[in-house]
Structures are given as C-alpha cells and as structure tokens.
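We were asked to recover a plausible sequence for a given structure. The inputs and outputs are reproduced exactly as logged, with field labels preserved.

PROBLEM: sequence recovery
POSITIONS: 485
GIVEN STRUCTURE:
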C-alpha cells in the first residue's frame, strides 16, 4: 500500500489515465469486432439472397400458385450452412422452410416489412419461441413487376456472440495485465521522483535548524537537479552572508570603539584640567572629529536600513549633474590635498546635463565614489571625473589609478557588508547604498577595475523629460502634507 503523498497521487493519476485509455480502446475495439462479424454474416446472406432473387426473376416465367415443390427445390439450391431458409407470401405466412417446421403465426418482423416494399430487410432479435438471438435477412421475389413472395434467411448469432465474448475476455485479460505492468512502472516512476524530493526535504529541514554544512547529494536531472543545486547554492550564500555579517559586526565594533575611545580619553583628560589653551583646543578638535566620524557611521547604517525597508524619501527636482560634481570636488578637496591627489573634471557634454532626481542623494552617490577613490589611491596620484551624454543618458565616470580591485572581489564589491580590505575601515555598506540610490533614479552603475592599475565607476542617469518632470513635481505637491492653520 502506497502511503499518502505525492507518490500516491502520481501512481493514481497515471493509473487512471491508462485505465480510461484502455477502456476506451477496448470498447472501440469490441464495437469494431462485433460490427465486422455481424456485417460479414449479413453480407454473406445478402449475396445469397440476391442470387436467389435473380434466379427467381430469370427462370420463373410462370409458377403454380404457392407450389411447395418448386419452392422447396429453390430453398435447397440456395441453402446456407447453419441458416434456415423460408419462403413467405405477402401476408407473412411461411409457405415452406428448410427445416420443415411449420409456423402457425405469420411473421411480421421489420425485415419482412422492408422486403414487401422492394428493399432488402434486416432484423436482429430473439425468436419468440426459443428466445435465441438471430439475424434475419429478407429479400423480395418479384413476378411481373410486383412483389409476390419473400425469401427469408434466419441464422443464429449465439455462436458469434460466444466468440465475441471470448475475444472480450481475452481483451480484458490483456488490459488487466497491461494495468498491472503500468502500476509497477508507475510505482517505480513515483519512487524515482519522491525519493529525491524526500532527500531534498530532509536536507532542507536540517538547513532550517541551522545546519548549512549539509548538502543535497545525488545526480538528479531536470527540475529536481535544479532544485537541489538551488538549495545547495542557497546554503552557500547563507554561510557567506553570515560570514559577511560577522565580519561587519567585528568591523563596525572596531570602527565604533576607536572614536569612542578617543572621545572618552580626551574627555577624561580635559576634565582633569591644567592644560594650556592650545592643548585644550587640540583635544576638542579630536573630540569633534571623532564625533563626526561616529555620526557618519550611524547615518550610513540608517540610510541602508531605510533603503532595505523602502522608506527612503526622495525629493525629485531638476538637477544639474555638472553642479553636483563641482560641489562634490569642493567637499573632498581638502581630503585629496592631504594625499597630494589631483582632482580633475572633464566635460564632454554640450551644455547642461539635466536629470530628474534628488540632488542631495545624487551628491551622496558621487561623494561616496570619489571618497573611495581617494581612500584607495596612492599619494601624488590623480582622480578624473568625466561627464558626458550618451543615448539620452547623463553619464558620469570616476576614474583613478589606485590599487584596483581583483576580478574575484569585483563581482562582490557592491554586496552589502562586503569589504575588500577589512583594515581600511568603514561598514562595507557604501557601495551597496550607492548602487540602490542609483537604481532609485532609474539609473545604472557599472564598475571596471584591474589590480594595481586603478578603477573606473560609471554612473548613468536618464536625462530630464520635461513632461515627466512636471508630472513628478505635481505628484509631490499633491502628496505633501497640508499644515493646519
């Protein structure tokens, strides 16, 4: 007995489909066989009746009325094995038959009625006296253009029906054998599907309990193979994600501890007093610097949280990308000067490059990209910012000749919490946030890099569509909260 589950459903459905198909085939087959046998008998009798009719027309010019001797000779001449021949008058009364058995009642079956209308008649039914199933074929015997008599042949169908029954039983036996074979094959088929599913289910249950080291083993094909590979890949990604989170927690703990230690140390030192104004000023500057650093870390994590929860508010306005880049360069100029890095802006566009976007968020994008370029570039190097227009897109490229990124890390550098260099500081969220901000502007961000040669980041933002801009501004005005007076 197959227990409840997908295996039983497969076997049941497969069995039902084959059973219904076999039943239809056998019904059609038996109907065809019965029709073939019955038609063969009918055609044989009709051919014989036709010869009898032709003989009567051709050789009988005048006959004594109801001459039993003549009719008896004709019945014997055109006799059929296992078939009774009869001559009837127009009233259906039997004048003579091949068995010599005389009937008291006239025959009024449909074959006789059809023969009296100059057609060959056929009737299948049971004899009143014996209850035997018979086929009767009647043909008219015409004299001087009128139907005077009917020749009727009656044959039993019991032997044919018995043979048909044997064929039916044989066909049913073959059907049962086929169904048994189908059942065995369907059970095997169900097991070939259910066994891998049970294996995958068991592995997924272990994964649900936190065991990501287990793997789905087995060379499964088609969708099951894809499911197994997907589950194994999911486990690898969870392990990798957990490792990244652990690294992030370790990194962010370090990042938070360092400024907090500096703030606490100088706070306690300044509390003791006894310092000259210059030393006090240095301590306060360090406290302010470390406080800004903490604020930056917290804001980065808050931005990432908002982006993940789709809560980032965007104020869409008309933004000039050239102005954003110029402001960005001014903001990072001092930091670049400390490493003697030259910042260059190359304008390949003709006129203004206007996009619909949030100016502050776009500035955040380019600040993060340029800040990363400064962080990972050597002293006395350069960073080039290029702006151009390509295929109705405003394109900004940030290129440097810094340390570059390996091919392996380049594929993952935009993943959240991922850091190429854990000693470089930061949360590993900067590029992930940048990527999502660009996507919120319906743009794209692509990176290309070569280890030891430098990195180029290309950001593409759709150019401003005036009609779309008006629609966005109108929507923002409608969605803005109304202040109560």
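RECOVERED SEQUENCE:
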């Amino acid at each position: 007995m197959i227990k409840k589950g997908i295996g039983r459903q497969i076997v049941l459905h497969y069995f039902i489909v084959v059973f219904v198909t076999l039943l239809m085939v056998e019904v059609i087959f038996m109907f065809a066989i019965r029709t073939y046998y019955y038609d063969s008998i009918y055609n044989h009798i009709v051919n014989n009746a036709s010869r009898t009719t032709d003989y009567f027309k051709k050789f009988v010019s005048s006959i004594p009325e109801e001459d039993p001797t003549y009719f008896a000779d004709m019945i014997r001449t055109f006799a059929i094995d296992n078939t009774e021949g009869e001559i009837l008058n127009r009233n259906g009364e039997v004048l003579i038959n091949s068995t010599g058995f005389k009937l008291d009642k006239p025959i009024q079956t449909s074959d006789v009625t059809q023969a009296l209308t100059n057609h060959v008649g056929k009737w299948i039914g049971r004899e009143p006296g014996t209850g035997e199933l018979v086929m009767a074929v009647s043909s008219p015997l015409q004299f001087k253009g009128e139907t005077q008599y009917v020749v009727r042949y009656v044959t039993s169908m019991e032997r044919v029906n018995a043979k048909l029954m044997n064929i039916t039983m044989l066909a049913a036996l073959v059907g049962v054998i086929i169904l048994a074979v189908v059942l065995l094959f369907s059970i095997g088929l169900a097991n070939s599907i259910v066994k891998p599913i049970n294996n995958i289910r068991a592995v997924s249950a272990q994964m649900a309990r936190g065991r990501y080291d287990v793997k789905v083993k087995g060379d499964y094909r088609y969708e099951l193979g894809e499911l197994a590979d997907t589950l194994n890949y999911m486990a690898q990604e969870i392990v990798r994600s957990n490792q990244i989170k652990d690294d992030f927690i370790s990194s962010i703990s370090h990042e938070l501890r360092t400024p907090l230690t500096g703030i606490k140390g100088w706070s306690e030192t300044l509390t003791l007093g006894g310092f000259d104004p210059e030393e006090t000023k240095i301590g306060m500057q360090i406290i302010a610097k470390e406080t800004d650093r903490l604020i930056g870390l917290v804001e980065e994590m808050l931005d990432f949280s908002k982006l993940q929860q789709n809560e980032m508010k965007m104020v869409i306005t008309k933004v000039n990308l050239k102005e954003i880049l110029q402001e960005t360069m001014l903001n990072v100029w001092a930091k670049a000067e400390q490493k003697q890095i030259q910042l260059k802006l190359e304008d390949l566009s003709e006129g203004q490059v206007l996009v619909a976007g949030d100016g502050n968020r776009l500035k955040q994008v380019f600040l993060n990209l340029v800040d990363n370029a400064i962080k990972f570039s050597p002293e006395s190097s350069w960073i080039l910012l290029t702006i151009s227009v390509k295929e109705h897109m405003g394109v900004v490229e940030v290129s440097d000749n810094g340390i570059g990124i390996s091919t392996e890390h380049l594929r993952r550098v935009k993943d959240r919490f991922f850091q190429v260099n854990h000693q470089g500081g930061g949360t590993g969220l900067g590029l992930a946030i940048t990527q999502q901000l660009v996507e919120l502007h319906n743009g794209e961000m692509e990176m290309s890099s070569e280890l030891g040669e430098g990195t180029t980041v290309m950001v593409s933002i759709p150019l401003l569509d005036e009609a779309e801009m008006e629609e966005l501004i109108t929507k923002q005005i409608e969605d803005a909260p109304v202040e109560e007076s």
